[in-house]
Amino acid sequence: MSETENDTVICILTEKIHRLERHNTEIQNELEKARAISLENCLSLLRLHQVLLVYTGTESLEHLTNQLEHAFVNKEYGWLIANQTLGHLFNLNNSPLEDNEREAFRESVKGGTHRW
Question: Taking the CB of residue 66, how many other CB atoms lie within 10 A of it?
Answer without folding.
Answer: 13
